[in-house]
Amino acid sequence: MKMSLIISLLFVFSSAITAVIKPDTIIVYKTVDDVDLSLHVFFPDGHTSHDSKPAIVFFHGGGFKSGSPEHFYGQCQYLASRGMVAISAQYRTEKANGTSPIECIKDGKSAIRWVYSHATVFGIDKGQIVAGGGSAGGHIAASTAVLSGFNEADEDTSVSCVPKALVLFNPVLNNGPDGYGYERVGDFYKQFSPHHNLHINTPPTLIMVGTEDKLFTPPMAKAYKKKMENMGLRCDLIFYQGYGHAFFNKGQSEEMYYQTMIDVDRFLISLGYLAGEPSTLQSFREVHFKKKDNPFVKHIYSADPSAHVFNDKMYVYTSHDEDTASYFNMIDWHVFSTENMVDWTDHGAVFSLDDINWADKWAWAPDCVERDGKYYFYYPVERAKIGVAVSDSPIGPFKDVLGKPLIDNTGQVEHIGKEPIDPSVLIEKGQAYMYFGCREPKVVKLKKNMMALKGDVQELKIKGIEGDNEHFGGFYGEAPWVFKRKDTYYLLYSNGWGKTSTLVYATSKKPMGPFNFQGEVMDVVSSWTSHGSIVQFKDKWYVFYHNMDLSNNNYRRSICFDELTFDENGRINKLKL
Question: Tens digit of pLDDT for each residue in 124-147?
Answer without folding.
Answer: 999 999 999 999 999 999 999 999
